[in-house]
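note to self: the first set is below, dont mix up w the second
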Amino acid sequence: MSTTDRTSDPDAPVRTDGTEDAPGRTDGADSPGRADGPGGACAHDRSGRPRASDAASDADGLLAEQLLRLTRRLHRIQKRHLEPVGITPAQSRLLRTVAAFGGPPRMADLAARLEVVPRAVTSLVDGLEAAGRVRRAPDPDNRRVIRIELTDAGRATLRELRSARRAAAEDILAPLTAEQREVLGGLLTALVDPGPEGGR
């Protein structure tokens, strides 16, 4: 799952205020503290402070922007650490996915696990096979089925990848204390695996 930044400056702020507040109703000719009419930039309560719903929306928008910037930075750092290994992030993910199966998987198994079309798996396997990291082998029970096997070079690459991923993670997490890393790990687990209710 290799992605590339769509902007020349991946760290450039992303606008999150693409829509204006809807025109609000007025209870009097000149209700004090109201700024949510047509063209109003922000809705306020009668004391002149931004409404709680708008403040929460702004905070969520900022948080989403920070997560996007962190994702882009992580991709850049990961790519830099993978370059000496001679493998792309997408190939790295496929190689780790092959290793995660109990036995050599079929191409269809890999496509389903990676949630990509079979054509994308074929391209990745072609590149890894050309580098000697995997090989295609016929299924012993059905010669028409092709399975993907790790080679010795592929297993050696996996060891290099583990070291590269640890180095990339250290680059990202360097400013955090051990306690902060533990808290972050719990928060990321909640976001990545929200359970059946949150995954709907």
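second set (the one i keep forgetting abt)
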Amino acid sequence: MTNHSEDKAPTIHSTRHTTGATRQPAERHAPVPAEQDAPVSVERDARASVERDAPVSAERDDRVLMGRGVRVPVERADGIPAEGGVPVSAERDDRIPVDLWLVRPQFTPGTGRRLAVAELDARERSRAAAFLRPRDGLLYTAAHIALRRLLAAVLGLAPEDVAYVRELCPGCGAPHGRPAVRPGPAPAPHFSLSHSGGCALVAVAPAPVGVDIQRRPTERATEVCVGLLHPGERAELEALPRDRRGAALGQLWARKEAYLKGIGTGLERPAHADYLGTPGHGPWRRPPHWTVLDLSRAPAHAAVAVPGAPALPLRIRPLPAEWLHEGDAAPALAGIAHLTRAVRVKETTT
């Protein structure tokens, strides 16, 4: 039903998606993000046989969004269409609205501003305290406060009243599947969380969703991971110059984890089982019925996955730091509820 997952990097040592409210596997190291504050946009992969600037109609079937060589228009946080987008007609009713939020905690000691740690449950606080590096604990804490407040704004709850459960794993049926909001009287949104390299990405939607953010892998990690991929992905990476493979792997791995989180298996499903490479680079096809989008120009390699097609335009909003501070959460929740499209969950979920 819902999904939020921790940092998963192309070291591939972990075998399943996790949450701070459950098991505590060893932390993993992800590829290092580029230091930039460029607006975030979404760009689809292109087939060589299709011109990149061809117009796209939202009235065409979902294959338009499944790697047919188009660039999906996206709005930056300020609402201005990103460069390189293609005009698309009004969004279809059956497309999935996805809210994407970027969390970048930047708190200066001595300012008197504290994170709303009291809103986390005991397991989340314990997990945050277990990080060896304080900055990692800070990021984890900020990301989980953000997730709770985003979900609370949609559900009409206090952040501390948002409760998580685990779904059954689609692969083995054991209760270590996708994290979910505990069922209640109102329909619960789906969600996904990933954090790496000083920032976190949160997705909230009325349908299953997966999101992942990765730092650039090291040369050694790239060498190890290429051999674990789908044959088509391996061929694509091995055809690149060595100095470009790390960045290509970081983006590929972000797609792969976003998709695996979306379907609910996490890395319980082997990395070689699905092709998430660039369409048009061989006879392979991406998994059917899902759209996997690169989040280009993000502060790291990032991707989002949804079943069917997402509503357009997609936006990534930076979560204001004051929305994470302790004190009365009502102003933050009001601001989130005003901006989010996930409130449609109450209208679209039966």
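remember for set 2: The radius of gyration is 19 Å.
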